[in-house]
Amino acid sequence: MNFRTEINIEKFQQQIYHSDNILTIGSCFAENMAVYFKLSRFNVLGNPFGVLYNPISIYNSLKFVVENREFSDSDLIFNQSEWHSFYHHSDFSNHQKGKILKDINLQNENTNRFLNSANFIVITFGTSYVYEFLANGIVVSNCHKIPQKEFKYYKLNLDETQKAILNIVEMVEKFNPKIKFVLTVSPIRHWKNGAHNNQLSKANLLLAIDEVIKEKKNCIYFPSYEIIMDDLRDYRFYNSDLIHPNKIATDYIWEKFSNSVFSNECIEAMNEISKIVVARNHKIRNINSEKHQKFLQTIIAKITLLQEKYTYLNLEDDLSYFRSQIL
Fold it and tell me: DSSP readout, 165-180?
């Protein structure tokens, strides 16, 4: 007997290798994906502007990257004793104007170089609702606790959503013709809009992405939203807020993602890398013990063999970590 409707995803033709450069951008689910990529030792840049939810904000951010735009004083706002950028997460906010501009421009420059050499971009759309700042009409990525009365809050219609996503793809592929897109909809519900409006918002994204994929052969869709909604239909797969998927759920999604998007060679390498990660996370009781010193020699030899087998793997940080403990 079957007690759940498991979503089986066929292997995509466009497959990811460890030799690829991968950019993730979008909602906090994109940040989760970047963490998994890093644990498997991919070369990944995760959410360089911080969390972004709607297609227009994602488009604006990537436009700044493609143009390698330099932010200036006029791009900042001052609120609650800090300087902020409407296009960046509050992680960039700072009491010093010079510091926030330096951080933003350095990140933009680094992301421009990374995007130019990227093989894949994973984009996670969270909502089709946007906040438009009334003073200048721009759609913001973060309101930075400015009173809501200063914004117009509304849902993009289907045409607007589709146009924004298509603009993202066409702009980025023009900048980097070899890049491929993995598009997905965040399984995290925006509950403040109510159950019905959340579904309408997600439906907008799903329909828009479907139309873009029909037109663009370098785009694939990964059903992270459907996996949570239809496969893991139980609150035991959520955190205590009953909104965000817990680690069991994100582990499961990553497994599904791995089996559908990664090459067989890549999965084989990941299985070996996971042993390195477990060893690195192991709590050391006595670094001076003979047993631990032998363990270090064994794990260093294992890493060296992995790098010889998969010459494109970068495990230098792991090597340095273990070598630093040898007496």
Answer: HHHHHHHHHHH-TT-E
Choose among 93, 83, 22, 25: nearest CA to 57.
25
* pLDDT tens digits along 259-294: 999 988 899 999 999 999 999 988 888 888 999 999
DSSP state of 7: -
Q: What is the pLDDT at residue 285?
A: 85
| pTM, two decimal places | 0.93
**Structure token digits, residue 251:** 């582990």
Go through the domains of the chain in sequence order and give each one's CATH number: 21-262 (3.40.50.1110), 264-327 (no CATH)
CA dihedral 62, 67, 71, 76 (to 10 degrees): -40
Q: How many residues comprise the chain?
A: 327
* Nearest in space to 157 (alpha carbons), one of 184, 186, 129: 129
The pLDDT tens digits for 179-194 are: 999 999 999 888 888 9
